[in-house]
Amino acid sequence: MSLSRRMMMRGAVAAAGAVSALPAVAQRGRAVALPDDPAGMVASLTDAVYINSNEHPVGPGPSALRALAALPPLSGRYGMAFAGKLESLFARQNGLSADQVQVHPGSFMPLRSVALTYSSRERPIAYFEPTFDQGFLGLGDKSVTRSVAVPLARQGLRRRPLGQGELVAQVVRDGVSVSLARDAETEEAIDNPRPYHVIPLGITADEIRVSYHGFIHTHLDFLNHNFIGDGVTYNGYRPDPATVMAEGGHSRNTVHGAKSGIVTRGLLIDMARFKGVPYLDPGTPIYIEDLEAWEKETGLTVAAGDAVVVRTGRWARRSEVGPWDIANHAAGLHASVIPWLKERDIALLGGEAPQDVAPAGIDPAVTVADDLGPRPLHRFALIYLGMPLFDNLDLDAVGDLAASLNRWEFLLTAAPLPTRGTGSPINPIATF
Question: Given this structure, which CATH class describes domain 197-431?
Answer without folding.
Answer: alpha beta
